[in-house]
Amino acid sequence: MEFEISARAAQWLTRLEAFSERYLLPHNAAWQRCAVRGVQPDFIDDLKSLARGEGLWNLCLPLLADGDPGTRLSNLDYAPLAEAMGRLPWTAEVFNCNAPDSGNMDLLQRNATMAQREQWLVPLLEGRIRSAFAMSEPDVASSDPTNLQTSVRRQGDELVINGRKWFITGAAHPQCQLLVVMCRNDESSDSARPHGAHSMVLVPLPCEGVQVLRNIPIMQHTALDGHCEILLRDVRVPASNLLGAWGEGFAMAQSRLGPGRVHHCMRTIGQCELALELACDRALERRAFGKPLSDQSNVQDWIAMSRLEIDQARLLVLRVAWMLDTGAPGQALRPAVAAIKVVAGRLQTQIMDRAIQIFGAMGLSPDTPLAWLWTWGRALRLMDGPDEVHLRTVARDELARAKKRGGASAAYFTTPEQLDAPVRIR
Ligand SMILES: Cc1cc2nc3c(=O)[nH]c(=O)nc-3n(C[C@H](O)[C@H](O)[C@H](O)COP(=O)(O)OP(=O)(O)OC[C@H]3O[C@@H](n4cnc5c(N)ncnc54)[C@H](O)[C@@H]3O)c2cc1C
To answer: Which of 181, 177, 159 is nearest to 168 (CA)?
Structure first.
């Protein structure tokens, strides 16, 4: 087992860190100022051009074809770079590695027709447009995608969509020109195959019948790119805008969420590392009752526990990246991805909570990134499915293996009968 990052990853990481230090960190205050005022920063496109010029582009897409813009990295090589991007969450866009575009590009790479690639994948790969992925709905428990009700019906050579979606990330961005909509097939409302009842439709934006009703704040933070509620009323698109096959929406959504979830987890590790650094520096410098906070044993415990938990989580995330690269079967991959999704969200809230406590009241203010990062960690425990659903996946996998063992663990009992039994070599 090799624990060092590869030479290639190390080389790109050095470049990315130097780029961040030189161009991104100096823009952080300006970006935060724009976020507070709710205006899109006007320097992002320039930064994107610079990053692309240095090859720091589309690093999160292992399926990048020869000739596509950017640098193709494996998931494992991308992990430390995503971690570095996580330190300034807005910067993933500069490298064209931001959610939900990264997941949507992966989805299109796997499923789009040539015409769909031309229309949407190419401009997304070039960072000319943005996109959103619309699955969750206010009227049904969306953690169970078989519930989704937004309908699509075929009418002549058109698809007609009706429904309401919410918390759709990215839909408020002025360059959002593609909405990938998960719809229930009109004729299959009583389908005996609940996982075959949905299709994905590519809706160009703006589009008649699509109305962005509001940008929903997440615990008092309003994202510039939005987490939007969207009404779709008699939205008509050409039948050729169907992505993949009719009824394959669920399967495609599953595969799309794999890498997307892993990218979130990779960035989480970087955010937690930053919080720990901030907490350590603060604990060394701040004095109470005649000594630095870092001399208090509870503060040392918090720092130590944070280090242990970050390192554990990183190893799990890297293992999943490796499983993605080596084509691990879905049966093995599903519980592994579910596990890191739970671990990452919980890690982030835990680490931020400790760091905030070390900072005192300042930790709750916008003067440090901690409060926003706590909120994001809390959101992570819901977005792309709540913890409980992922835990169910992990538990089911564990129990399936227990069933296969057929009670073999009973050999480890030491009941009175077993203590008296003669030794039997198996
Ligand atoms: C910041 C943010 C960004 C988001 N971005 C997007 C986006 O871009 N696109 C999109 O489509 N959606 C997005 N979402 C929505 C997100 O994916 C859903 O909120 C999530 O899937 C849960 O669905 P729900 O809110 O309907 O909760 P519900 O399905 O109503 O579930 C509520 C609770 O029920 C419990 N529960 C559910 N199932 C089980 C179970 N099997 N076992 C035990 N308990 C269970 C859980 O505790 C869960 O939290 C985003 C959400 C947030 C917060």
So the answer is: 181
Ligand 1 site, residue 382, Cβ cutoff 6 A = yes
Taking 80 as the threshold, does the pLDDT of residue 191 lie above it?
no
For the chain, residues classed under CATH 2.40.110.10 are 130-243
Find the range with the poorest average confidence among 102-116, 187-201, 237-251: 187-201
| Domain ranges in the chain with CATH number 1.10.540.10 | 7-112
Cα(94) to ligand 1 centroid in Å equals 28
Kindly tell me if the per-residue pLDDT of 259 is higher than 90: no
Alpha carbon 76 to its chain centroid, in Å, reads: 16
416 token code pair: 């009175």
Cβ atoms of 201 and 241 within 8 Å: the answer is yes
pLDDT at 254 over 90: no
pLDDT per residue as tens digits for the range 52-67: 999 999 999 999 999 9
Residue-by-residue DSSP string for 172-221: TSTTEEEEEEEEEEGGGTT-S-GGGSEEEEEEESS-TTEEEEEE--BTTB
Domain with CATH 1.20.140.10 in the chain: 251-405
**CATH code for the structural domain at 7-112:** 1.10.540.10
Read off the pLDDT band of 189 (50, 70, 90).
low
Per-residue pLDDT tens over the stretch 266-290: 999 999 999 999 999 999 999 999 9
The atom number, within ligand 1, closest to the CA of 384 reads 17
139's tokens: 């009227």
The answer, yes or no, to whether any atom of ligand 1 lies below 6 A from the CB of 257, is no
Judge whether residue 148 has pLDDT over 70. yes
Pocket of ligand 1 contains residue 148 by CB under 6 Å: no
Residues of the chain with pLDDT > 70: what percent? 99
Q: What is the pLDDT of residue 424?
A: 86
Spatial CA neighbour of 266 closest among 306, 332, 316, 230? 316
Architecture per CATH, domain 130-243, reads as Beta Barrel (2.40)
CB of 392 closer than 6 angstroms to any ligand 1 atom: yes
144 CA closest ligand 1 atom index:
29
Q: Is residue 69 lining ligand 1, measured as CB closer than 6 Å? A: no
Q: Is the CB of 169 under 6 A from ligand 1?
A: yes
- Please tell me the CATH code under which domain 251-405 is placed: 1.20.140.10
